[in-house]
């Protein structure tokens, strides 16, 4: 609608200052000619809008003019900007509506509060989707963590000293990290930061103590919260590649072997009972990790892993451990 577009033009000029007609046309997905017609309509309505030709020209508002959208505090406006990171608006086809709403909110803020509101989407992300099954464990969140100090360091662009308890380890560890921002993943808060220049994920409810230092944060150049979060999320949810394993099995035990381990076979196996029982036949398999081949020890001398060497070493260690255990028993 033209009225909505005129308001969008007005708010863009109010928040951005002088803007070229080409940029306005691209932002509002209309032609440059339409933008100039909108400028004429605004001028006719009494809005002090001007156009300036030339290389550094554009469209702008006379100094001191602003619209007033009342009823929003700065904190309320900042809270609304978190919505831009949720992604649900995109699924519903409401990208344009959200962009328009945020421009109106930005115009409502006093100038000193605008940078903080703009930075919300750069420092806070909301990802409502649960972790993939192969990713982080779906443990229940602890009582709401105190995000105050973490949030302060994130927005103050300062390094953060943490006392942190890792899952499964009773003793806490101390770190000094470079924070990028906070992420709410399926209602659990995480601090996204660099530790010694490498991306790390810290669950907020495991932070026992946090202290903002006077040191300026050392983020990697050209890297933002969204970039680091994408890397960390992929690392957590990455499906591990299975290890291909070649096994030879005595034909007489092949039928039982396939009943137990058939789900790991990756190629059509030989037929059981079509040759001598002592004959060796080869089976192609895949395991999630080399250590998983230890389950084949149940077949004793009737199954041998041929490759890869790491799987053979794993079985050799397992057999040696069992041998030492039983050799140490009194006769």
Task: Summarize the structure in words.
With 331 residues, this protein is an alpha+beta fold. Helix content is 37%, strand content 23%. It has eleven helices and eleven strands. Mean pLDDT is 79; it is low at 134-144.
In short:
The protein is α+β, with helices and mostly antiparallel strands.
Any key phrases for this structure?
331 residues, alpha+beta, 11 strands
Radius of gyration: 31 Å
Number of strands: 11
State the helicity in percent bands.
Answer: 25-40%
Net shape: elongated
Gap between N and C termini, in Å? 93 Å
Count every helix, treating DSSP H or I runs of 4 or more residues as helices: 11
Helices and strands, in order, run as: HHHEEHHHHEHEEEEEHEHEEH
The whole-number mean of residue pLDDT values reads: 79
| Largest sheet data | 6 strands, mixed
* Beta-strand proportion: 15-25%
Spans of at least 5 consecutive residues whose pLDDT stays below 50 are: 134-144
Q: Structural class given helices, strands, pairing? A: alpha+beta
